[in-house]
Description:
The structure holds 2 protein chains of 2 kinds. Chain A is mainly α. Chain A is built from 5 helices and no strands.
Amino acid sequence: MSRTLGTIGQVGAATVAFGVGTLLGGWVSLPVVAFAAIAVTNVRRGPGPLHLGMAGGLAWAAILGWRAWTSPVGELAHRLADLFGQPGWVLPAMTPVFALLMVWGTATLSAAVFRREKPGRIIRPGSAWHS
Amino acid sequence: MSRLRLTHFPPLTRPRGPGSLQAPTPGLGLLRPTIRVTLAALTVIVLGGLSVVRTGRFPRFGPFLDPVGGIWSVAGQARVRADQQVTLPSLTAAVEVVVDRRGVPHVFASSEEDAYRVMGYLQARDRLFQLELMSRAGSGTLTELVGAGALSGDRTAREFGLPWGADRKLAAIDTTSLGYRALVAFTEGVNTYLDGAGTTGIPLEYHLLGRTPSRWAPINSLHLFGRMGMTLALGDPARARLAVQGLVGAEAAAALVPLDNPIQEPIQPSDRRGPRHAFHTIPPPGQRDSVSAMLAEMLPTALAAKPMGDGGAIGSNNWAVAPARTRDGFALLSGDPHLGLSLPSIWYEIHLVVPGRLDVAGVSLPGAPGVVIGFNRDLAWTFTNTGGDVLDLYAETVDDTLSPSRYLLDGEWRPLELRVEQYRDPRGKVLATDTLRFTHRGPMQHREGQWLSVRWTVNEPSFEADLFLRAGMARSAEEWLEIMQDYVAPTQNGLVADRAGTIAIRSSGAYPIRPGDGRGDVIRDGSMRAADWTGMLPVEAYPFSINPSQGFLVSANQQPVDPRDNPRYLGADWISPWRALQINRLLRGDQSVTPDGMRQYQTHTGSAHADALVPFILDAGRAARAAGAVDPRLLRANDLLSEWDRTYSPDDQRAILFDLAVGELTRRTWDELRRADGRLVYTPAGSTLRELLADSESVWWDDRGTEVRETRDDILNASLSAALDTAIARYGTPEGGGWTWSRIRNANIYHLLGLPGLSALGLPVRGGPTTISPLSGRGTAGASWRMVVELGDQVQAWATYPGGQSGNPSSRWYADRIPQWVAGELVSVHLPRTPSDLADSLRVARIVFSTGGAR
């Protein structure tokens, strides 16, 4: 339970970081924040690439949701759907998916660069992972 | 510690290793590290690449999808805030704006300059992309915004000297004039918006194109007027006349491309109580004239365009009724300018108030300060295009055919002014480079081995924007006319009515005075200064009428004055006056005109063209029936056409038969005007066809493709029969519902970039090719602004246009007026005297512009 809460906390913090990063620096902040998150956290404390990816996607989904709450995103999505010949949900869905993939990809590469994960590292039976 | 950390922060992915347990990790974590890293690298490369480099028609992914500064920010711009504060540092005092339910801003300022500053800001906020697009169209720099696809249009703009003309105009402007100060103020407003826009305030089109907006400059507004000049005044009857002369000789050409229209229902009313039919026998086709044919080919193809042609592509109307003929005893004015339809609309509605100085409402051109068509508390005005011949061509003698640097004038070589024109793509890469040469007349073009120079009033120094600003401040029709007497181009039929009951119209603009016979439908010898214009017609000689005895005034692009009243050359090849005939007929029959009646006339479905032709077609069929030689197809077609009430209502079932029959009739009658490749070099006006109908035995009726000699009735019957065949083949049987007019002809309002998803297509409107609200062809032109103004104790106005105030497709005001426009409805225009005059129920937003302490 506490592990789950911790993960949620990490993802939440990362979501805020990605949201703030996007507000300040636009889409380029996704790989930058992802890289920084991997770089500044150590192997055992930092969130993994997938969680970071989820955080990036959540951040963008949250901003898009806020926009939809305050402005006619639906109408715009409808117009864009006509424009690109796609169903109306495609572009709104693509937005967080893009962020998720971009962050996951960058984080995974960064992790490899920083050797966060050593191939062949042994996890013993009875470790906390299995508890 | 380690275990605790693992407990709380389990790695998301775990590799498998010898002797280890397999860690159950979710999703992508199951992948082998190498594969995972490879996939990640690919993902980053692909997404990153697509975010940096544009591929195909899809914008760059990252910037586009960015929910803060990307495409979704466009939705944020559409949000309407009830109260807003804006800092506009160049203001001299605070300005308050209230926005009504139709999205119209009412600007209350303490000086004209401040009003135009705020106007610039508001137009940029609502129409930024349109501002840049239209201005670039006038400066021939569209490729820098939309890419190489616009190169041809840019070349045409520059070859005809539009940017050169704008430079000349700007250099000649009195910088102390209200107009210039307004241009500067407007520019400040636009650029203030740009300064604060960042990536979150730019329109959707920039996101799609992956561009950023350019800074605004005063000359951009002049480019805009140049672009309007190109739309409304680029043409020369010389091209049509020479092309026809090349095929059928001079005598026939003079009748088919006449100086004067055979049906006279002029703008300047004559003493008659109806039209004058000046029909003559059209001379038979004569000998081919190869020199004329060659000259016609030599002329720029752009001059062949006839935007105001009989096909009804563009056709504006205006009319005014004196108090004596209106129900309530007030003058009424109808403004109904027709232009190419677009989303956003070509017009932007606004109300500007500077207490004691200015209180004007109506429509402005996005990109220019002031109201072009509208009303104030004393008068109302509107325009239609005159279509005067204001462009002349001169065959120049040059020192070098391929790369001239001098031209001959009165025996002396004079240097040509050279301008190197570069066309660049959005990245700055040079797409093409042209060296344009200018004589003292204007730009030269090289065609078929001959250099031609163009003199065009659109390029003459003038300052229309200043006139529009001052005209909006006039207090009477007379004052308005006095201000507009300096108007130059494009020639416009300016109609004005005031609260004193005065109605007046004048075909304003610079009409060149030419040497010799004064005609402009010729190519002149450029080697002599004697070929030059000797001046401009004095305003007293313009077609004009004020408070005519008939009690109303009408213009619909027809020949402005009957040559019997004023034989001076103003132009040639005038369009058929079908719309003018129809409006005149309606007004002659209405002694008690109401504002709502004016509104209904704007979309009246009756057709003077049909009234003129249908009797001939029916009579020809009846004659054939009486003669006993009857084709069952013809009988059926004749019966079907006789059922038609000659109106183009959306649910009409017979109009299409007439429409197709006219097409067949035109094709079969004018077969002598076909080139070897089968294309007509020119289609004579419908009124010329009506003229020919009066001569049943004319040789023009003969179809050269057959061995027999056809008469008029033979061709009429064959055309109707063929039309029936075509109608059945295309639309099914007459009873099947496929002939419904609105299913066949629609209005299509395309987005400025031609994007169907942002367009309004297939709109079932009231009207046909020659009705007051013409609809024809692709349906891409039509009424751009409909307005009725009653000049009573309190001026009242009703209006609409096909679109909405915002250029933002997600805005409630993007296309909200289209249903009204389709139905021919108008809505009341609000005219508050103060911000608080606009009732709360009508007000959706209030914006306070302040100096921000800068002053």
